[in-house]
């Protein structure tokens, strides 16, 4: 199964639509949003031809984000765990590096997905792969200069199962 990973879309409908288009063109079976939609109107385009899961980001100030996600997908709250085929995944927004490091370090998950930093990246540590799909470009040191998302191929393993995609909005 191919899983789409996105984060930090911050009400930018152009990047949301670009992400959904990429995920649909790749035939993903599920999409995980790692938080920071901001408002419910930027959630609804993810009501597409895939299963949808999301966690709360630190900029998701409208509580209607939860009910909007739950109207067609699954809202995981602050963090959650998922299984795709035999691949165990933990998801959090990533506001706390301590939490991300603990999820990676505990050894209970194959992948830990998070956003928050707006910097795409992937690293493997003791058999667990940390994936940040990236986000909107922001004027912060280390942030991406363009919007990125990622895909995870559950038929592969490790870092090589993750592909980052640079998207033009």
**Percentage of helical residues?**
10-25%
The low-pLDDT segments are: none
Structural class: alpha/beta
The main β sheet shows up as:
6 strands, mixed
Shape: globular
* Gyration radius over CA: 14 Å
Q: How far apart lie the N and C ends?
A: 26 Å
Q: Count every helix, treating DSSP H or I runs of 4 or more residues as helices.
A: 3
Topology order in helix (H) and strand (E) letters: EHEEHEEEHEEEEE
Please provide a brief summary of the model.
Helix content is about 20%, strand content about 30%. By secondary structure, it is α/β, with parallel strands linked by helices.
Please describe what this structure looks like.
The chain is α/β, with parallel strands linked by helices. Helices cover 18% and strands 31% of the residues. The chain has three helices and eleven strands. The strands form two sheets. It has a six-stranded mixed β-sheet with strand order 4-3-2-1-10-11. Strand 5 and strand 6 (87-92) form a beta hairpin. The longest helix has 14 residues, at 13-26. The radius of gyration is 14 Å and the shape is globular. The relative contact order is 0.20. The model has no long low-confidence stretch (mean pLDDT 96).
């Amino acid at each position: 199964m191919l899983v789409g990973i996105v984060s930090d879309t911050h009400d930018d409908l152009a990047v949301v639509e670009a992400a959904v288009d990429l995920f649909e063109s790749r035939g993903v079976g599920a999409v995980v949003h790692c938080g920071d939609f901001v408002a419910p109107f930027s959630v609804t385009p993810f009501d597409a031809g895939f299963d949808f899961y999301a966690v709360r980001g630190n900029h998701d100030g409208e509580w209607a984000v939860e009910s909007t996600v739950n109207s067609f997908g699954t809202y995981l709250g602050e963090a959650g765990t998922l299984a795709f085929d035999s691949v165990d995944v933990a998801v959090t927004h990533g506001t706390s590096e301590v939490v991300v490091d603990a999820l990676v370090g505990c050894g209970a998950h194959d992948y830990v997905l998070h956003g928050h930093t707006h910097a795409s990246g992937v690293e493997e540590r003791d058999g667990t792969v940390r994936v940040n799909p990236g986000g909107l470009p922001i004027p912060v040191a280390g942030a991406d200069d363009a919007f990125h998302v990622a895909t995870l191929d559950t038929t592969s393993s490790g870092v090589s199962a993750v592909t980052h995609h640079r998207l033009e909005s």
